[in-house]
Amino acid sequence: MNIVLVAGAITGSKTATVLTALQKELQIQAPAAKVTLLDLRQLQLVFSDGRDFREYEGDTRYVAETIMQADALVFGSPVYQAGISGALKNVLDLLPARALADKVATAVITAGSPRHFLVADYQLKPILNFMKAVLLPSTLYVEEKDLAGDQIVTDEITSRIKRLAQDLLLTTKTYQAQLAALEADLF
Amino acid sequence: MTMTDYRIHPENGLEIGIYTLGDRMPDPNTGQMPSERERIDHLIEMATTAEAVGLDYFALGESHQEFFVSQAHAVILGAIARATEKIKIGSGVTVVSTSDPVRIFENFATLDLLSNGRAELTGGRASRVGLFKLLGYDLADYEELFEEKFDLLLQLARQDKVTWSGKFRAPLEDATVYPRPLNGTMPIWRGVGGPAQSAIKAGMAGVPMQVAMLAGPVSRFKQTIDVYRESLQRHGFNPADFPVTTGGLFYSAADMPSALRAYYPYLNEGMKKANGYGFNKRLFAMQRDPQEVMLIGDPEQIIEKLLYQYEEFGMQRYIAHIDFGGLPHHEVLKQIEILGTKVLPTVKKYTQTYPGGQVK
C-alpha cells in the first residue's frame, strides 16, 4: 500500500507537525506500507498552467507523480482567510480532473481557533470528491491549543490520529480488495 | 470547396482507414520492443497492407515525446507515398503550433506530388506540450500560436499568392509558396480532441473536421459534431460541403470477452507511457456496450457499432487506431486485414447510395 500525505503550507509548522505524527502512526499500524510525506515547505512548486502533469519539472512533477501513484492520501492544510491554503489548491490544480479515482482520501485541517471547523467538510472534501476520491467520513481538525512547537500536547488529538490512521487503512484495504475482485471479474 | 474538393465521395459509402501515432512501446506481455528502424518499417508496412486490403486512408501523427518515432512524420509519409499507389495518405495530426506553416505546406505539397495527388493534412494543437520547450516556443501562446499558424496554412493552400502578417512569423507579401499540390490545392482538416471550442473554430474557418474519440458514449461525441455543423451554418457555410472524420480505437477478436481480455494490457500500458496513467479498467469494460465509441468485439459487433455511429454522426470517414501500446506487428497486420476484409465490405454496402435509391 502506498500512502501519501501532503502538508499544504509553505510556512509555519502546525500542518507538517500533525501530518508527521500521522505518518508515524500509519507506519506503526501498517509496517509494510510506503508512507510518504510531501512537505510543501521543502519543495519548490510552480503554479499550475493546465499542462499534463508529467510535463512539469523538478519538485512540481515529483509532487504530482507521487500523488498519482498513491493508493491513499491525506491532504493537510492550514486555514487561510476562512479556507484552504493556495499552495494546497495549486497542488490539486496540477492534477487531471479524475486524478483521485479509486484512491482513498481525507483531510486534516489546522487552525488557530475552532471557528473554521467545517473547512474540511465544506471546502476541501467537495474538491476531493469532484476529483473522484473515495472519501473517509472522518477528518481531523487541530487547533493552536493542541500543539506546542512541533509536539502534539492534547491526548484527544493523539487518539484521534490513531483512529484516523485506522480508518484510512481499513477503508483502503477494503476498497482495494473489493476493487481487485471486481476487476478480475469484468471480462 | 465542396466534398469533392476534399476528395470525398459520399455516394461510395463511408470511407474507412487507419491512423497511427507512431508510438514505439514494449509489448506488455513479452517486453519486446522493435528498434526505431524496425518500427518505421512497420509503419510503412501498415500502409501497404491497408492499401492491399482496400482501405481508403492511412494517417500518421506527429509526436515528439519518448516512446514515439513519428517526430519527422512528413518524411515517413514520403516513404509511404512511394510504397503505395492508391490509398490516400495524410497526417493525423501535424502539430501546426510549433512549425512554420510555410515549411509545413512545402512538405505536404511535396507529399502530394510524391503520391500523385493522394496527400492530405490534418492540423492540431498537440495534446502533450513537451515539444514547446524542445522547439523553442512559449506554452503561454498555446492557443494563439495554433490559430495564427493554422490560418496562414489555410491561406497558403487556398491561394496562389498570399499577403499576410502575424505575431509569430515574418510577414508575407504577395508570396507564392512552391511547390504547388498536384491539382493546385489539397485537403486541410482541423484535428479536434475534446473541447467543443475547437469544433466551433473549425466551423468558423470552414474547414473539415477530424474528431478523435477515445472512450465514452456516442451521444457525447455527437454533440461535438453537431456543434461543428451548427458553427459552419452560422458562419455562412453549408455543412453538406464539409466532411467529418471520426477516429477511435479498434480491436477485433473471436468474441467480446476475448477481445477485451487481449486488448486491455496494450491500452492500459500504452496510456501509462503516453499519458502517465493507465486506462480505468471499469471504463474499459463498458466499451462492450454498443453505444460506446470504441470499436471492440467480434467483427459483427464492430460492424453494428460502426453503422450505429454512422447513423448518429453522419461522418464521411472513419479511421481506426489499431497499433497503440506495443501490439505486436503481426497482430496489427491481422487487425488491418479484418478491418479491410470483414468490416469494410458490409459497412460500404450499407452506407453507399445506389442509383434509384435501392439497396442491393
TrEMBL record, chain A:
Molecular function GO terms recorded: oxidoreductase activity
Keyword field: Flavoprotein, FMN, Oxidoreductase
Domain of life: Bacteria
A Pfam family the protein falls into: FMN_red
TM region(s), chain numbering: none
Record-annotated NADPH-dependent FMN reductase-like domain positions: 1-143
InterPro entries: Flavoprotein-like_sf (IPR029039), FMN_Rdtase-like_dom (IPR005025), NAD(P)H-dep_FMN_reductase (IPR051814)
Protein name as annotated: NADPH-dependent nitro flavin reductase
Automatic annotation (TrEMBL), chain B:
Domain of life of the organism encoding this protein: Bacteria
A molecular function (GO) term: monooxygenase activity
Keywords, ordered alphabetically: Monooxygenase, Oxidoreductase
GO cellular component: cytosol
Keyword Oxidoreductase carried by entry: yes
Alphabetized Pfam families for the sequence: Bac_luciferase (PF00296)
Positions of the Luciferase-like domain: 15-316
This protein's record includes keyword Oxidoreductase: yes
UniProt protein name: Luciferase-like monooxygenase
Organism of derivation: Limosilactobacillus ingluviei DSM 15946
